[in-house]
Amino acid sequence: MSISVGSSREHIPVHIFEDAASVAYEVARHIGALIRDRTARGLNTVLGLPTGTTPLDVYKELIRMHKEESLDFSKVITFALSEYYPIEPDRLQSYHRFLRENLLDHINAPEDQTHSLLGNLPSTEVDNWCRSYEETIRAAGGLDLVLLRIGRSGHIGFNEPGSSRSDRTRKVILDSITRKDAASHFFGDEYVPRQGLTVGVGTILDSKEIILMAAGEGKARIVRRAVEEAVNEEVTASYLQEHPRSAVYLDRAAAGALTRERTPWLVYDVEWDMSMAKRAIIWLSERVNKAILQLEEADFQNNRLHSLVYAYPEIDELCLRVFDDLRRRICYRNQLPTDERIILFSPHPDDDVISMGGMLDKLVRNRNEVIVAYMTNGSVAVFDTDVSRYLGFAEMCLDQLGIKGKAAENFRVRRNELLEFLENKSSGTVDLPAVQHIKAAIRYAEAVAGIEVMGLSRKNARFIDLPFYQTGRIRKKPVGEEDERIILDLMEEQSPAHIFVAGDLSDPHGTHRMCYFAIQRALKRYNLEREGPKVWLYRGAWQEWEIHQADVFTPISRAEMARKIEAIFKHESQKDRAMFPGAYDDREFWQRARDRNTGTAEALNRLGLPEFYAAEAFVTGYTL
Predict the structure, then answer these.
(1) Catalytic residue among 61, 83, 160, 484
(2) Does 493 participate in catalysis according to the annotation?
């Protein structure tokens, strides 16, 4: 359901939905209705289409509507909005290929009505070709609807910061943030093209209608800037404020930084309940730099919380209730599960120790029977040089392992074949199956070494390697029946009293999100036959639960943090220089984990709660 209430701070219509799937469904239905209306009137529908993870579900729904509801695309004309330069059209990372594989090959839009930017043109021909692309758009009658996603730099298409409202289709230099975000698709940012082709801001603003989509917490800050700040060239998406028929469609996570979501009491009258009062009091405590029990009525009055004072006139009592609520959420080791069966689902082979190493340490010491289920093998995040190094190590150990004669000769032949492949492969090429398996084995060995620091062993590790991940590429298959079945089988085997699940949907590569949905679907089937386990949601390397969201805070001592960091260090392929660290943040994963956990403890301390060295946060009692 859309939450259409806006605020005076938003300079463009914003529709907020509970999840990304709902956003995609509504956008697809809107596009479908437009196509049907124009087709019925004998008119073409001209669409500007983006690529990336965000619109994928829109395209899936449009394909379903075409196959199951007879949505006719014969009078639809499409224009791709961007492309890398230089790049061949058939490359895995090509936007031309993306649109063909994820939409155009599955609908009945005529070939001559689908247009892509050509990334393999000689540089001397690019400018003239871009002008002809503009002329083709004009000849089609202009764009009826442009579907956009927003980049972390605020770009639309490849219109990076500094683009002007009059820009047309052209070649551009890609922003460093854009290139970092694309690094995962190219297996390293050094392989990402430095330039791109893009339909210009002016061309987009000339369209009859614009829809901007965003999903996930990682887009929340830039969405707020695009929607609430004045139009400025540093956030290109802010130009959409000038269009009379533009709108923004967000899931709740992407809307999280908007004033009406983060601090709604600042923009409209709210209905105060204890949950909202708790949020406001935590916000006020941080704003005025006072502990919760030191807040006075004047602090509320001076910070636009008059209505809260009116709703709860006994301010001291209200502050005490909120303080006690937070204090009760601090769980020491003796309050955590003991002698129970537990499954910790880890999307990648290091999320367990990075995200909840402190909790895992306590669960093991509490004699729980813990299974760590690694949901994907993480092979795409291993550098080729690591494979070469381990192959060299294996060769040096052949004699000691008793591998001699013909077997040793066969090994050397195979090693040379793999090394030759690695030496000659071009950027972004899918690895040979043997290389993929070696990279997976590297991650698996590191995962076992990591949990051994916590007192577990190989028998506590399950490498369930969900099929959706097994493409050898960053772009994965949809979560399917086989993925659900593997998770369901593990839960039926273990009958866990508790499961720990990565609940952060801001993972920039989408794997956490897909693992979450796979567990969600499996758990619904599991719960049909028995009482389900208690679900604990943890956050990954990218973000922590906010204080008002968390149900449980587990204190971490210096010694426990040292063990957690030691366990993270065992993931050597991700140490010093991870392949996909995400944009903005150059810290190593152990540094992010340490800083995030100490930051949570410091935030609790500022509120007047007990002082700890560090703390991890969890959401419980959650229905997946």
Answers:
(1) 160
(2) no
